Amino acid sequence: MTNQKEQTELQVFKTVLLHCIIIITFPVISFFTSKIFIFDKLLGLETVTSNVYSAGVAIAILHIALGAFIYRAYFDTPSKLQMKSD
Amino acid sequence: MSGVNEPLPDGNPIYGPFFGVMGAASAIIFSALGAAYGTAKSGTGIAAMSVMRPELIMKSIIPVVMAGIIAIYGLVVAVLIAGALEDAKKYTLYRGFVHLGAGLAVGFSGLAAGFAIGIVGDAGVRGTAQQPRLFVGMILILIFAEVLGLYGLIVAIYLYTKQN
To answer: Which of B57, B65, B83 sits opposite A23 (nearest CB)?
Structure first.
Protein backbone atom coordinates (compact mmCIF):
# COMPACT_ATOMS: atom_id res chain seq x y z
CA MET A 1 0.00 0.00 0.00
CA THR A 2 2.67 2.48 1.01
CA ASN A 3 4.90 1.32 -1.82
CA GLN A 4 2.17 1.85 -4.37
CA LYS A 5 1.36 5.21 -2.90
CA GLU A 6 4.98 6.31 -3.18
CA GLN A 7 5.09 5.08 -6.76
CA THR A 8 2.10 7.15 -7.74
CA GLU A 9 3.65 10.12 -5.98
CA LEU A 10 6.79 9.63 -8.05
CA GLN A 11 4.62 9.33 -11.14
CA VAL A 12 2.90 12.61 -10.38
CA PHE A 13 6.23 14.30 -9.75
CA LYS A 14 7.60 13.00 -13.05
CA THR A 15 4.54 14.20 -14.94
CA VAL A 16 4.61 17.66 -13.40
CA LEU A 17 8.37 17.99 -13.91
CA LEU A 18 8.10 16.91 -17.56
CA HIS A 19 5.36 19.44 -18.25
CA CYS A 20 7.19 22.22 -16.44
CA ILE A 21 10.33 21.58 -18.50
CA ILE A 22 8.25 21.55 -21.68
CA ILE A 23 6.46 24.78 -20.76
CA ILE A 24 9.67 26.60 -19.86
CA THR A 25 12.05 25.39 -22.59
CA PHE A 26 9.88 24.79 -25.67
CA PRO A 27 8.86 28.44 -26.21
CA VAL A 28 12.46 29.61 -25.89
CA ILE A 29 13.75 26.92 -28.24
CA SER A 30 10.96 27.48 -30.76
CA PHE A 31 11.52 31.26 -30.68
CA PHE A 32 15.16 31.00 -31.68
CA THR A 33 14.88 28.00 -34.03
CA SER A 34 11.94 29.49 -35.91
CA LYS A 35 13.67 32.87 -36.08
CA ILE A 36 17.09 31.64 -37.18
CA PHE A 37 16.17 28.71 -39.42
CA ILE A 38 12.72 29.48 -40.80
CA PHE A 39 12.13 33.23 -40.85
CA ASP A 40 15.71 34.48 -41.31
CA LYS A 41 17.35 31.79 -43.41
CA LEU A 42 14.50 30.14 -45.29
CA LEU A 43 12.17 33.09 -45.86
CA GLY A 44 14.71 35.92 -45.53
CA LEU A 45 12.41 38.34 -43.72
CA GLU A 46 13.45 41.63 -42.12
CA THR A 47 14.59 41.68 -38.51
CA VAL A 48 11.43 43.19 -37.03
CA THR A 49 9.09 40.99 -39.05
CA SER A 50 10.95 37.79 -38.25
CA ASN A 51 11.11 38.78 -34.57
CA VAL A 52 7.37 39.32 -34.44
CA TYR A 53 6.55 36.09 -36.27
CA SER A 54 8.87 34.01 -34.11
CA ALA A 55 7.41 35.62 -30.98
CA GLY A 56 4.00 34.56 -32.23
CA VAL A 57 5.26 31.02 -32.81
CA ALA A 58 6.73 30.91 -29.30
CA ILE A 59 3.50 32.13 -27.71
CA ALA A 60 1.46 29.59 -29.71
CA ILE A 61 3.75 26.76 -28.62
CA LEU A 62 3.50 28.01 -25.04
CA HIS A 63 -0.28 27.87 -25.05
CA ILE A 64 -0.32 24.44 -26.66
CA ALA A 65 1.98 23.19 -23.88
CA LEU A 66 -0.23 24.81 -21.24
CA GLY A 67 -3.31 23.23 -22.79
CA ALA A 68 -1.61 19.83 -22.74
CA PHE A 69 -0.82 20.25 -19.06
CA ILE A 70 -4.39 21.26 -18.17
CA TYR A 71 -5.72 18.32 -20.21
CA ARG A 72 -3.37 15.94 -18.41
CA ALA A 73 -4.21 17.34 -14.99
CA TYR A 74 -7.93 17.17 -15.68
CA PHE A 75 -8.10 13.64 -17.06
CA ASP A 76 -5.28 11.87 -15.21
CA THR A 77 -6.34 12.75 -11.70
CA PRO A 78 -8.55 10.11 -10.09
CA SER A 79 -11.96 11.63 -9.85
CA LYS A 80 -13.29 9.42 -7.10
CA LEU A 81 -14.30 11.54 -4.22
CA GLN A 82 -12.84 10.54 -0.90
CA MET A 83 -15.48 11.09 1.68
CA LYS A 84 -14.14 12.37 4.93
CA SER A 85 -15.33 10.33 7.87
CA ASP A 86 -15.26 11.88 11.23
CA MET B 1 32.15 56.35 -26.73
CA SER B 2 33.38 57.00 -30.23
CA GLY B 3 32.52 60.13 -32.12
CA VAL B 4 31.69 62.30 -29.15
CA ASN B 5 32.49 65.43 -31.08
CA GLU B 6 30.18 64.63 -33.97
CA PRO B 7 26.77 66.24 -33.43
CA LEU B 8 23.87 63.80 -33.25
CA PRO B 9 21.21 64.19 -35.94
CA ASP B 10 17.93 65.90 -35.15
CA GLY B 11 15.50 63.56 -33.44
CA ASN B 12 18.31 61.38 -32.09
CA PRO B 13 19.14 62.85 -28.68
CA ILE B 14 21.74 61.16 -26.52
CA TYR B 15 19.07 60.10 -24.03
CA GLY B 16 16.94 58.40 -26.70
CA PRO B 17 18.05 54.85 -25.87
CA PHE B 18 17.26 55.51 -22.20
CA PHE B 19 13.55 55.14 -22.97
CA GLY B 20 14.11 51.90 -24.85
CA VAL B 21 16.20 50.46 -22.03
CA MET B 22 13.55 51.46 -19.50
CA GLY B 23 10.92 49.81 -21.70
CA ALA B 24 12.83 46.51 -21.82
CA ALA B 25 13.47 46.64 -18.07
CA SER B 26 9.90 47.53 -17.10
CA ALA B 27 8.54 44.76 -19.34
CA ILE B 28 10.27 42.05 -17.37
CA ILE B 29 10.23 43.79 -13.96
CA PHE B 30 6.48 44.29 -13.73
CA SER B 31 5.64 40.96 -15.38
CA ALA B 32 7.88 39.15 -12.91
CA LEU B 33 6.28 41.10 -10.06
CA GLY B 34 2.83 39.95 -11.10
CA ALA B 35 4.00 36.39 -11.68
CA ALA B 36 5.68 36.27 -8.28
CA TYR B 37 2.55 37.52 -6.54
CA GLY B 38 0.41 34.99 -8.40
CA THR B 39 2.76 32.14 -7.57
CA ALA B 40 3.03 33.05 -3.91
CA LYS B 41 -0.67 33.69 -3.35
CA SER B 42 -1.85 30.52 -5.08
CA GLY B 43 1.04 28.65 -3.46
CA THR B 44 -0.33 29.40 0.00
CA GLY B 45 -3.69 28.05 -1.12
CA ILE B 46 -2.11 24.86 -2.47
CA ALA B 47 -0.10 24.37 0.70
CA ALA B 48 -3.18 24.78 2.89
CA MET B 49 -5.33 22.51 0.71
CA SER B 50 -2.77 19.70 0.16
CA VAL B 51 -2.67 18.87 3.86
CA MET B 52 -6.09 17.27 3.57
CA ARG B 53 -6.28 16.40 -0.17
CA PRO B 54 -2.76 15.59 -1.40
CA GLU B 55 -4.13 13.78 -4.48
CA LEU B 56 -5.28 17.12 -5.90
CA ILE B 57 -1.81 18.67 -6.08
CA MET B 58 -1.47 17.99 -9.79
CA LYS B 59 -4.71 19.81 -10.54
CA SER B 60 -3.94 22.68 -8.24
CA ILE B 61 -0.52 23.42 -9.74
CA ILE B 62 -2.29 25.02 -12.72
CA PRO B 63 -2.50 28.57 -11.24
CA VAL B 64 1.23 28.46 -10.55
CA VAL B 65 1.99 27.45 -14.15
CA MET B 66 -0.30 30.18 -15.47
CA ALA B 67 1.44 32.77 -13.29
CA GLY B 68 4.76 31.60 -14.70
CA ILE B 69 3.47 32.15 -18.22
CA ILE B 70 2.84 35.82 -17.40
CA ALA B 71 6.58 36.18 -16.82
CA ILE B 72 7.28 34.54 -20.20
CA TYR B 73 5.14 37.25 -21.89
CA GLY B 74 7.33 39.90 -20.29
CA LEU B 75 10.45 38.00 -21.24
CA VAL B 76 9.44 37.83 -24.91
CA VAL B 77 8.80 41.59 -25.13
CA ALA B 78 11.97 42.41 -23.18
CA VAL B 79 14.04 40.27 -25.56
CA LEU B 80 12.40 41.89 -28.60
CA ILE B 81 13.07 45.42 -27.32
CA ALA B 82 16.60 44.61 -26.19
CA GLY B 83 17.33 43.22 -29.64
CA ALA B 84 16.21 46.49 -31.26
CA LEU B 85 18.27 48.79 -29.01
CA GLU B 86 21.05 50.65 -30.77
CA ASP B 87 23.49 53.47 -30.39
CA ALA B 88 21.97 56.94 -30.06
CA LYS B 89 23.11 57.84 -33.56
CA LYS B 90 20.80 55.27 -35.13
CA TYR B 91 18.09 55.26 -32.48
CA THR B 92 15.46 57.95 -32.80
CA LEU B 93 13.60 59.34 -29.83
CA TYR B 94 10.38 58.13 -31.40
CA ARG B 95 11.57 54.53 -31.26
CA GLY B 96 12.57 55.02 -27.65
CA PHE B 97 9.06 56.20 -26.78
CA VAL B 98 7.49 53.32 -28.70
CA HIS B 99 9.70 50.79 -26.92
CA LEU B 100 8.94 52.35 -23.54
CA GLY B 101 5.23 52.13 -24.32
CA ALA B 102 5.55 48.50 -25.38
CA GLY B 103 7.40 47.59 -22.20
CA LEU B 104 4.92 49.38 -19.96
CA ALA B 105 1.95 47.82 -21.79
CA VAL B 106 3.07 44.24 -21.23
CA GLY B 107 4.51 45.02 -17.79
CA PHE B 108 1.42 46.50 -16.19
CA SER B 109 -0.93 44.05 -17.94
CA GLY B 110 1.19 41.24 -16.56
CA LEU B 111 1.10 42.80 -13.11
CA ALA B 112 -2.69 42.98 -13.20
CA ALA B 113 -3.03 39.46 -14.60
CA GLY B 114 -0.65 38.09 -11.97
CA PHE B 115 -2.67 39.68 -9.16
CA ALA B 116 -5.87 38.21 -10.59
CA ILE B 117 -4.34 34.76 -11.01
CA GLY B 118 -3.02 34.81 -7.46
CA ILE B 119 -6.32 35.69 -5.84
CA VAL B 120 -8.39 33.37 -8.06
CA GLY B 121 -5.88 30.54 -7.65
CA ASP B 122 -5.88 30.81 -3.87
CA ALA B 123 -9.64 30.80 -3.48
CA GLY B 124 -10.23 28.37 -6.36
CA VAL B 125 -7.80 25.74 -5.12
CA ARG B 126 -9.24 25.84 -1.61
CA GLY B 127 -12.74 25.56 -3.03
CA THR B 128 -11.85 22.70 -5.41
CA ALA B 129 -10.74 20.62 -2.47
CA GLN B 130 -14.27 20.72 -1.10
CA GLN B 131 -16.29 20.75 -4.33
CA PRO B 132 -14.45 19.15 -7.28
CA ARG B 133 -16.98 20.51 -9.80
CA LEU B 134 -15.58 23.97 -9.12
CA PHE B 135 -12.45 22.97 -11.07
CA VAL B 136 -13.89 23.84 -14.48
CA GLY B 137 -14.99 27.23 -13.21
CA MET B 138 -11.60 27.90 -11.70
CA ILE B 139 -9.87 27.05 -14.99
CA LEU B 140 -12.19 29.37 -16.93
CA ILE B 141 -11.63 32.26 -14.53
CA LEU B 142 -7.88 31.65 -14.65
CA ILE B 143 -7.93 31.70 -18.45
CA PHE B 144 -9.80 35.01 -18.45
CA ALA B 145 -7.22 36.42 -16.03
CA GLU B 146 -4.38 35.08 -18.18
CA VAL B 147 -5.86 36.65 -21.31
CA LEU B 148 -5.42 40.10 -19.73
CA GLY B 149 -1.67 39.58 -19.90
CA LEU B 150 -2.01 38.33 -23.47
CA TYR B 151 -3.80 41.54 -24.47
CA GLY B 152 -0.86 43.51 -23.11
CA LEU B 153 1.51 41.30 -25.10
CA ILE B 154 -0.44 41.88 -28.32
CA VAL B 155 -0.42 45.65 -27.83
CA ALA B 156 3.29 45.56 -27.01
CA ILE B 157 4.16 43.58 -30.13
CA TYR B 158 1.99 45.87 -32.23
CA LEU B 159 3.81 48.89 -30.81
CA TYR B 160 7.15 47.19 -31.38
CA THR B 161 6.45 46.90 -35.11
CA LYS B 162 6.01 50.70 -35.40
CA GLN B 163 9.02 52.13 -37.16
CA ASN B 164 9.87 55.43 -38.72
So the answer is: B65
